[in-house]
Amino acid sequence: MSLRSPLGRVLGLGSAKEGTGHWWSQRVSAVALVPLTLWFMFSLLALPALDYDTVRTWLSFPLSGFLAVLLIAVLTYHAYLGTDVVIEDYVHSAGAKLFSLLLLRFLYVLVGGAGMFATLRVAFGS
Amino acid sequence: MPIRARPMSPHLQIYRWQIGNSLSILHRLTGVALALGLIVLCSWCVALASGERAYAAAMRLYESPLGIAVMIAWTFAFMFHFLNGLRHLFWDVGFGFERLQRHASGWFAVLGAVALTAGAWMFIWASHRP
User: Which of A56, A107, B15, B54 would staple B50 via disulfide (CB 3.0–4.6 Å)?
Assistant: First the structure.
């Protein structure tokens, strides 16, 4: 006779291994992206031109720089969650799956990190 | 125990195409396209931080005919993923599951994305003409 509870015996045995965590994070980031992407789109459309000085001036406003960094962070996170599922669905061999999941994680940190670092540099005027 | 052919879920080839599965696939496709667009967005920020010449070189690329074509495609991908994403969020809280609502919201997402893409680019061409 096992002393483990029925719940304890099945926890982690589902195909996802982690319950609704991934699903929920995807929805939360999606909700956050609604105002962030709208702000970004309307800001770009409202700029008189997309030349160097105009865009730099725009991003050097504290609110613009802050929201741009947030946008890149949440966008990267949401894209990572989404493309992770695509790979899990379509890449079947264990080796290729591990490789592509790892590669994608590194790429997202690299791309998102570079984007945020660059935006912060512009925001702080260097 | 004899091994019997187990029932399988319908494969793409025998699945009757309809708006539900088409938009589901399009949502994923546009999502992957937008993830690629993230690279371009971030490289734009890096170019902006790297100085005037790097930024001008990046903008020449984006404003080339091919660059503009890709940007228009990305605008549609964004508009559709945005509208269809809202559709998913409404489903998640329990609204819009009726057949008519599903179809109407689906067409709204597609046609709305086309209209918003056209509107955004007409605005850009009218006001940002270099």
Answer: B54
